[in-house]
Amino acid sequence: MKILHSSAKRDGFYLPAEFDRHYGCVMIFPERADSWQYGAINARRAFANVAGEIAKCERVTMLVSHREYQNARLILPPDIRVVEMSSDDAWARDVSPEWVINADGVMRGVSFGFNAWGGLYDGCYFPWDKDNAVSSKLCDLYDADMYDCEDFILEGGSISADGRGTLITTESCLLSPGRNPKLTKAQIEARLCDSLGIQKVIWLKDGIIGDETNGHTDNICVFCSPYEVLLAWEEDENSPQHAICRENLEILENALTADGHKLTVHKIPQPRPIYMTEEECGGLELYNGQPTRTPTEPLSASYVNLFIANDRVIMPFFGGENAENDMRARDILQKIFPDRKVVGIYARDILIGGGNIHCITHQIPAHNMPYIGG
Amino acid sequence: MKILHSSAKRDGFYLPAEFDRHYGCVMIFPERADSWQYGAINARRAFANVAGEIAKCERVTMLVSHREYQNARLILPPDIRVVEMSSDDAWARDVSPEWVINADGVMRGVSFGFNAWGGLYDGCYFPWDKDNAVSSKLCDLYDADMYDCEDFILEGGSISADGRGTLITTESCLLSPGRNPKLTKAQIEARLCDSLGIQKVIWLKDGIIGDETNGHTDNICVFCSPYEVLLAWEEDENSPQHAICRENLEILENALTADGHKLTVHKIPQPRPIYMTEEECGGLELYNGQPTRTPTEPLSASYVNLFIANDRVIMPFFGGENAENDMRARDILQKIFPDRKVVGIYARDILIGGGNIHCITHQIPAHNMPYIGG
């Protein structure tokens, strides 16, 4: 692995869209006892279900600590590759490199800094050094040269790309004092464009209320095809979430892509608010003597937090009083993705950890690299 | 990775020779403070030299702990892939799976048990659980299905194969009470044949005096081509090593390969005895309160402990009063390997750890697998 100090844009590389063809997908096995209740037993089952579904149409590599390697190997189907790698939690979306490609199909990784969604300002845990090392280790593992952008804090969940030069992000996250406080909005935009080969950034305001990531876009608005986005939509006009969704809708309706197109916005109705039970909270270890979850705070649930695999879309189901909403959201999504099968995975046990299916997955684009780890 | 409970032989798989074509090679970055003097600084340089030389003709993957990942990445050339994997020391030869292939070029791993060269009987360290897990993790990493032979203790350095059904090993190691004491010699031979697709085992008696592995064959006798072996040869008739070499020579001269051929034995003169200095010993941490090396014990040096790469042979040089012997051994080996360049690497700092170039490398045979980690 060569470490590069030029930039993707200068070298003719760009960030493909998630709906473009994948080589495969990376995930991380859940382990952290203050994120995943009761030894992560339910979370592991949910992660295994997601991995198994993705593995039907692309290669899945599951990263896992030495300590849990044998457990992961036992739980996961044989067609999933299990690879030892240290991390601080299980959010592959946010700790992986962004993979950029060029016209010849060469793939490189872009390694950004990771500080647990806000560092000492408002991050979720300390330390985060193992998480921060994942992106360079993955570039090495996949034999891809790496752009070193580790002086710039960026998580994969905070951006969504159309693969044609346009990126969506949120001000609430990227302008948070916990990310890159010394940079202006214009400087941050320039950095995004340079590091990822982007021409146009669409700035949404905020994300899902209660989202510990300062409002990642992947929980509220993502590209589903060129010129089309999914927008999480709170129908209850009395909810503060409604106002956030409406503001984002206006921005999207007035936005143009890098190549001058308007966007079609698909509203995906939000599930009813979901709370953890006392029993679920009781299965979490304390973090610095404090509980990480209480039954009074709603979880940041959203159907938009899905993974677009090669021939299917893996979406979260929440069950319970959302059982009907699950079906409704699936039917809407199935119309939006006519060429892919939309598959729901019961994901309450992922949501409890603070994210959802998109947060625990990271695609690797199709490419023409000769040597590549499966 | 599928875990298989049949056997290589039953499934039509066999162990290729080291002199057959390689896909690549695996090594482990040295770290252990009671094996490698002064923070392994010299050892790391020597390992990097070996890796760099092999990387000129085949893919090299260097395994390293999370703790030392950044160090390894910094020291090693960019064309070497650095992959996190926990281990207890740095002996890739002995902790890797044996890779078997079939006529279609499918590759599988055979994972044996590893107990640090003798377990609690006379092993070199405890615990060895991380080392023992390396072979299954490597099968997973390279997306190869794995034969589970972990109930049978076997190190890669204790066998040498001609790739045509014949295996050389030593009684001193394989019949040691620290390996598989409940099995008879006949049962051990049957297990070797079944697990590695072997038809014929040639049993040498003993290895190099002072070898902590109970006399691995890779330090005294290895195949260099079909029907030809290298035999470490102590010319001093007063040395007890001379008697061991002579006994092995007689066995080899009377042996037939699986296909009924006689062997040509190339005698490779031994270097003069090598001792550690007081200063070198002082750079080693104690193990359980005891020194692991003293300046009075000779190290188990041998020129036979070399690595046969695709277009070169990497052999140890010892320097000092062996400088002339180094040249002499190189010239002999260059005649034996007319199609490969013989390259000497100054390896005193590997020898100090208890092995040499063959012990720290493990080839992966050429194969036709579609997805493979570089």
Give a description of the structure.
The structure is a homodimer of 374-residue chains. The first copy, chain A, has a single domain (3-365), classed as L-arginine/glycine Amidinotransferase, Chain A (5-stranded Propeller). In chain A, helix 1 (41-54) links the parallel strand 2 and strand 3. Chain A is globular. Chain A has 11 helices and 19 strands. Helices cover 25% and strands 24% of the residues of chain A. The A-B interface holds A 1-3, 59, 66, 69-70, 73, 78, 81-86, 130, 133, 136-137, 140-141, 143, 145, 371-374 and B 1-3, 59, 66, 69-70, 73, 78, 81-86, 130, 133, 136-137, 140-141, 143, 145, 371-374.
Chart the SSEs and their pairings.
2 copies of one chain form a homodimer.
Chain A: E1 3-4, E2 22-28, H1 41-54, E3 59-64, H2 69-75, E4 81-84, H3 92-95, E5 98-101, E6 107-113, H4 119-122, H5 129-141, E7 145-153, E8 159-161, E9 166-170, H6 171-174, H7 185-196, E10 200-204, E11 221-225, E12 228-233, H8 240-253, E13 264-269, E14 274-275, H9 278-282, E15 298-299, E16 307-308, E17 312-317, H10 323-336, E18 341-346, H11 348-351, E19 362-365
Parallel strand pairs in A: 1-7, 2-3, 3-4, 6-7, 9-10, 12-13, 17-18
Antiparallel strand pairs in A: 2-19, 5-6, 8-9, 11-12, 14-15, 16-17
Helix content of chain A: 25-40%
Structural class of chain A: alpha/beta
Summarize model confidence as the mean pLDDT of chain A: 96
User: How many strand segments of chain A?
Assistant: 19
Poorly predicted ranges of chain A: none
Radius of gyration from the alpha-carbon trace of chain A, in angstroms? 19 Å
At CATH level 2, the architecture of chain A is 5-stranded Propeller
Strand order of the largest sheet of chain A: 1-7-6-5
Report on the biggest sheet of chain A: 4 strands, mixed
What is the multimeric organization of the chains shown?
homodimer
Number of alpha- plus pi-helical segments of chain A? 11
CATH topology of chain A: L-arginine/glycine Amidinotransferase, Chain A
Query: Helix-strand pattern of chain A, N to C?
Result: EEHEHEHEEHHEEEHHEEEHEEHEEEHEHE
- Class of chain A in CATH? Alpha Beta
Q: How would the global form of chain A be characterised?
A: globular
